[in-house]
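Check the record.
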Amino acid sequence: MKQETKQGETVLAVRRGPVLVLTLNRPDRLNAWNDELERRYFALLDEAEADPGVRAIVVTGAGRGFCAGADMADLQRIGADEIDSVERPRPRTFPMTVRKPLIAAINGAAAGLGLVEALYCDIRFATPTAKLTTAFVRRGLIAEYGMAWLLPRLVGTSTALDLLMSGRVVTGEEARALGLVDRVVEPDALLDAAVDYATELATLCSPESMRIIKEQVRAALDSEFADAVAEADRLMVESFRHPDAAEGVASYLANRPPAFRPLAPR
């Protein structure tokens, strides 16, 4: 995969071993989301999916923010009668379908669509003073991009309603207590902590197992317990036949790092 370091790009891509670090790069706009940034971000996720050398992905923001939400200047230029005609090559929820671990390193403001993108990731790291807000209600909008489905499953119904109906700001520390983020790390250590975690997944965990587990967890959110158990039983039998199962046991017995296979192409 080609590494991109041009500062003019809306998203920067840098490899750190088996981990790809994607940096939203509109710092003068607190990395506000626009169509150009979306196209590049989604394209880089596609490339990461296809690259066997990339086993985990970390997403962060340049400068003081993670992503301040949709670019207001762009929204002002879109008339209400034009919204339905805006073409998007991918569903907005596309990041949730990425098969490899996707980890957010929330270094500052994550508002509206910026918070949505962070919540689409599998794991979230944040600084203690990072500011997270749904923001939609304070712009006369609704719970956009599946937030009404996603938030209650992360934090519970009443807390989701609190965050959505008030649009209030929570810091990284409160976000951790609520379940919005998983780790709180000081700013100067945030990115390294997220990359170190991603590297551990990339080097010690089976890509195929992680792919299946992600699918299991998402599917189980809307299934009965008995159905989830039956599906796990079926998948367990399949996993015994996969080469990674033999390698996992062999590497453990030999006290060496595992050499798991990369994901097969889609």
Summary: The chain has a mean pLDDT of 92. The two ends are 17 Å apart (CA to CA). DSSP finds ten helices and ten strands in the chain. The longest helix spans residues 225-241.
